[in-house]
Amino acid sequence: MKIALQCDFDGTVTEEDVSFLLLDTYVGSRWREYLKEYTEGRIPVGTFNKKVFGMMKADRQTMTDLVLNSDRVIIRPGFRELTDYCSQKGHKIVIVSNGLIFYIEAILENLGIDSLEVHAAENRFSPDGMEVRYVGPDGTEMEVGYKEAYTELLQQQGYNVIYVGNGASDIFSSRRAIKVFATADLLEKCREEDLECTPFTDFHDVIRGLESLVLS
Ligand SMILES: [Mg+2]
User: Fold this and answer.
1) Less Cβ crowding at N or C end of the chain, within 10 Å?
2) In which order are the strands placed within the sheet that holds 117-124?
3) How far apart are CA 98 and CA 144, in angstroms?
4) Class of CATH domain 3-212
């Protein structure tokens, strides 16, 4: 059985949302008005991110230094063990995130994890505000459905997708997965929808859950 773990990044690999740290630091509190619009379902996640990241004007080095040195960026325990476990078992791990590619790559590099496939928002630093683009598997820019597009791609490639996530935007891919590991808002969403899932607090829970799966 071909297995792919599709894993969210912010709030999943990291305990807190890294982009919130960047926005709090470089935009100030006004970005949270847009967060409210997004959480109330009035704007899609891609539109929200383009809008608020567009208010960040600092350069790459400054933002990378902040992310790598902040005590608000904590990696959820067991992540390295999960990547080792998956490579031993021959499972693919793909990170698909609505966050920004620059900090995901910087954090993974800092952890010494360089072999993961990552799909996230392409970003261009600019003193006029960061430009952000979500590019789907077919190379076209997309505003909605980014995570599901990669779930669908994995399925088309013959993978059984296991989903790991924390947020409301993870529910769409979760609905398509053969198994879901959920925490925080995603866990709540799954329960509301009666979608079967395994709660997790760290990645050791995910490894245990994978071990107990009968994969034929
Ligand atoms: Mg998340």
Assistant:
1) C
2) 131-133, 117-124, 92-100, 3-7, 160-165, 179-182, 198-199
3) 10
4) alpha beta
Give the model's pLDDT for residue 175.
Answer: 98
The pLDDT of residue 215: 61
Residue 1: its pLDDT value, please?
Answer: 87
Give me the percent of the chain exceeding a pLDDT of 70.
99
Q: Which residues surround ligand 1, an ion (CB under 5 A)?
A: 8, 10-11, 166-167
Mean pLDDT of 130-138: 96
Sort residue 195 into left (φ over 0), alpha (ψ -120 to 50) or beta: beta
Query: From ligand 1's centre to the CA of 54, what distance in Å?
Result: 20
C-alpha 213 – ligand 1 centre gap (Å): 24
Q: How far is the CA of 14 from the centre of ligand 1 (A)?
A: 9
Tell how far the Cα of 197 is from the centroid of ligand 1, in angstroms.
Answer: 16
Say how many Å lie between the CA of residue 7 and the centre of ligand 1: 9
Percent helix, strand and coil across the chain, each to the nearest 5:
45, 20, 35
CA of 44 from ligand 1 middle (Å) equals: 15
**Rounded distance between C-alpha atoms, residue 52 and residue 4, angstroms:** 31
